[in-house]
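Most newcomers find our protein records easier to grasp once they have seen one. A learned vocabulary of local backbone shapes supplies the integers on the structure line. Here is such a record, shown just as it appears in the course material:
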Amino acid sequence: MSKSILVIDDSASVRQVVGMALRGAGHEVCEAVDGQDALKKLDGRKFHLIVCDVNMPNMDGISFLKAIKQKPTYKFTPILMLTTESGADKKAEGKAAGAKAWLVKPFKPDVLLNAVTKLT
């Protein structure tokens, strides 16, 4: 079944790779360049999952997590952090802010798709 997924990353190439993997599996993808851009796209549309980078300009992934948890419509939307950050401290911070899963870049598309299946 097709899911609607928001992909947030300041790297166009990462958005492209993630988007291709997700679209290839039949999902609908919406892209945002950072947390602020993503918040503008959370306009009431239903997203089954959000894939979010940690290190981004304007608003980083952890700040975005905290902001989205304040929005009743998106409070329970699962968030998968896709990042180069592999440190336990960052993971703990992400989990505390509401991240459901953590995938470290570079990633294999099938690992991403397995995570999507588990979270949606």
The longest strand covers residues 4-8. Helices lie at 12-24, 35-41, 61-68, 88-97, 109-119. The domain at 4-119 is CATH 3.40.50.2300 (Rossmann fold). The mean pLDDT is 96.
